């Protein structure tokens, strides 16, 4: 998005369909954005807008079939010790192959909404994190892995890590499991952490703590974060760049300043109206009227047309969906209002 430096990851015109008996679902429809080293790109939008499918396609964990990647590139600028290496198009990798497995959980790690998906119930948290460490570090000895695991648990704020390392997942509270999952993800020093609604399943106190943790990690490491959330307070705290998705399309893209100071797309404005003010009084929430449509039955033209309060019949529901217009440098919006 900006000319800062070369991005770590560039998603270009990604298009993913699901081919089911019922029909074809266009889950991601021409989405492009960058993720920079040491920075957070937030991907926001209501449920069903293609956020997770986009994230999963980076790691190549979207199931093909039923999914089909119709177009696009995901360029990963992996750098070696000299700071140079050829860029890789992750979409060219075999999803089951060695190459992507070396990247998955190693250079690119992911944390999920539900931490139980990251841990099996039969082994201690410590053993599972140590195992991951040993897998990625051939020279590491067992006792070193245990020591490193304890350090990681401390780093994510787990008290009495020396004892807790021997606990089983069910002995941890939800918040603790969430932290342990982050420790697991950090065990390989990822270049990119994908956090898919990491705090949706925890209460607000724990949410704040997890965010503090991500914030701190960001400040102290070069790790980039792709943060998927529908909590705009979280976005305002963590993100440098924001991508707004709706029904598989990129509605708006810019820096946090662009999008918080000057939200342009009627959808973004609607999202903004639907949250309590970040500062000041709690105003009445105004949900966006209507519901997210289905990628299996997309309208022609702008996918937000039927919910839009400023739609222009004939233009917005015409044959061509609106292209992205650059309204100010680096601030793009896919809406005919700005043509
Ligand atoms: N495994 C699947 N099979 C069929 N359709 C899917 C599958 N996963 C996702 N989809 C479709 O893709 C759309 C986007 O899903 P997703 O990326 O999970 O949305 P979200 O923005 O909530 O993360 C969904 O509305 C659904 O129609
Ligand atoms: Mg999702």
Characterize the structure shown.
With about 350 residues, this protein is α/β, with parallel strands linked by helices. It has a domain at about 10-105 and about 225-339: P-loop containing nucleotide triphosphate hydrolases (Rossmann fold, 3-Layer(aba) Sandwich), CATH 3.40.50.300. About 30% of the residues lie in helices and about 20% in strands. It has ten helices and twelve strands. It has helices at about 50-60, 100-105, 125-135, 140-155, 160-165, 175-185, 205-220, 230-240, 255-260, 265-275, and strands at about 10-20, 25-35, 40-45, 65-75, 90, 110, 190-195, 225-230, 240-245, 250-255, 325-330, 330-335. The chain has an eight-stranded mixed beta sheet, with helices on both faces. A four-stranded antiparallel beta sheet has the order 2-1-4-5, covered by helices on one side. Strand 7 (about 190-195), helix 7 (about 205-220) and strand 8 form a beta-alpha-beta unit. The longest helix has 17 residues, at about 205-220. The radius of gyration is 21 Å and the shape is globular. The model has no long low-confidence stretch (mean pLDDT about 90). Bound molecules: adenosine-5'-diphosphate (ADP) and magnesium ion.
SSE order and pairing:
Elements: E1 9-20, E2 23-35, E3 40-44, H1 51-59, E4 67-76, E5 88-89, H2 98-103, E6 108-111, H3 125-136, H4 142-155, H5 161-164, H6 174-186, E7 192-196, H7 204-220, E8 224-228, H8 232-238, E9 241-246, E10 249-255, H9 256-261, H10 266-273, E11 325-328, E12 331-333
Parallel strand pairs: 3-8, 3-9, 6-7, 7-8
Antiparallel strand pairs: 1-2, 1-4, 4-5, 9-10, 10-12, 11-12
Helix pairs in contact: 3-4, 4-6
The site of adenosine-5'-diphosphate has 15 residues, from strand 1, strand 2 and helix 1.
